[in-house]
Amino acid sequence: MSHSSKALNMSLIFRFFDAVNMHRWNDHLRPMDLTELDKQAHKVAIAWYIGKREEDSGADVDWTKIIEYCMFSFMQRTALTDLKPQVFHKIKKEKSEEIIDYVLSEFDEIIPDMEEGFRNRFEKYIRSDRRGLEESIIRGAHYLATKWEFDLISEMNKAFVGIEKTREAIRSEVEMHKNLAGVSDILIGGPAKDFANMIGQLRFQQRWTRTPRIPQTTVLGHSLMVSNMTYLHDLDKGAGPKQKYNDFFTALFHDLPEVLTKDVISPVKTNVSGLAELLDEYERDSVQSEIMPLLPEGWRSEFEFMIFEPFQYKNDPVHGVTDGPVIKLFDVMGAYMEAYVSRQYGVSSSSLRRGEDGLRERLLREGEPIGAAELIGRLEEMDI
Questions:
Q1: How confident is the model at residue 1 (pLDDT cuts 50, 70, 90)?
Q2: Residue of 35, 93, 225, 304 with fewest CB within 10 Å of its CB?
Q3: How far apart are CA 233 and CA 26, in angstroms?
């Protein structure tokens, strides 16, 4: 396959990564930075929960559509920067065709070699009327993730003009999706809401602890980067729908146990004898006692399949194939991008440089299955 026909394209990957520089609610007081990359990751995780509940109700959920529609809406959002939601929706409604043409021209300019099939599906999506079960699931997840953010900041902004109008607009949008069982579950509270909140906690957890770095990325935002890269790779390899689902959501949830343990950097795990095994045992016990009870019993076997030993190759008679070693390579690629981009922005340190060099060496040594050398070369050619 030629470079020009690859879905896994560094220009597109960097577009997703750069959304960490899109700051949400930036005209409000915030207890933490809220970025578009994290919002999109939170939305996708909530969409998984809602989609699984729809399957429990007997619906036929197309998970490939869920994944790609989330990507396509993310891509459109990056082209329209950080417009206020009411402005964003108004111009989409009143200048629909002009906006679509602008978005497509933007991507055709920055990613002229976007894989044709992926690009065509992107255009079809943004020109569509956005109906159907999968789109409803994504919209429900979108507004729940927005509500989570608003609930986080609303108390400290209660004196702001228009805050109650914003609250009512979000409430109204969420209410429109209460026909979806998963949306109702989260609104009611209990285990479903706790699960969504636990995912949200990974938005608090910064990557590269104690290492000065710009832009700051979180565990959840990083996880979506790994998911998106893995999915694009699976498209190039012609993976089947089940493997694409397994690989994408395994990548998305692979760091969820860190909400229970916090991140322990690799050198510490490697150099302290027995620590990695002790952490693995603790994580497994904690996941069983604190995360699994938040999910319906019928989902737990699949969820264990995804989050335990996520970097191993698995071929399960029930759950199918997961290419864990490829997910690990994209985990390393995401970390390399975080270090490299910070240095390009002019913020570095000895620990960050050592980390960047080690990650680059590993990718060049082990990364042939994902075309790591080409991806690194393309990144280093970019004017960041």
A1: very low
A2: 93
A3: 34
Q: Give start and end residues of each alpha helix (H) in the chain.
A: 10-18, 36-56, 63-79, 85-94, 96-110, 116-127, 133-153, 163-175, 181-188, 191-201, 219-237, 241-253, 258-261, 266-271, 275-286, 300-307, 324-345, 350-366, 372-381
Give the pLDDT band (50/70/90) at residue 3.
Answer: very low
Whether residue 215 has a cis bond before it, omega within 30° of 0 = yes
Assign residue 238 a region (left: φ > 0; alpha: ψ between -120 and 50; beta: otherwise): left
Q: Residue 340 CA to chain centroid, in angstroms?
A: 20
Number of domains, the chain: 1
Domain that holds residue 357: 3-381
Residues 368, 296: Cα–Cα separation, whole Å? 39
Give the DSSP H/E element, type plus range, for residue 316: strand 313-316
Residues 6+ apart with CB under 8 A from 101: none
Q: Coil, helix or strand for 323?
A: strand
Q: Report the pLDDT value the prediction gives residue 280, as an integer from 0 to 100.
A: 77
| 339, 359 Cβ separation under 8 angstroms | yes
pTM of this structure: 0.94
CATH of residue 81's domain is: 1.10.3210.10
**Beta partners for residue 206, in sequence order:** 218
Helix (H, G, I), strand (E, B) or coil at 206: strand
Burial environment of residue 188 by CB neighbours within 10 A (0 to 12, 13 to 18, 19 or more): exposed
Angle at 80 between CA 78 and CA 85, to 5 degrees: 105
pLDDT at 92: 66
Residue 84: its pLDDT value, please? Answer: 65
- Tokens for 112, please give them: 């002229």
The Cα–Cα gap between 370 and 66 comes to: 24
Q: Which helix (H) or strand (E) holds 216?
A: none
Residue 334, pLDDT > 50, answer: yes
Q: Does the pLDDT value for residue 333 go beyond 90?
A: yes
What is the pLDDT at residue 270? 54
> Residue 262 and residue 201: Cα distance in Å, rounded?
11
Would you place residue 258 in the very low, low, confident or very high pLDDT band (cuts 50, 70, 90)?
confident
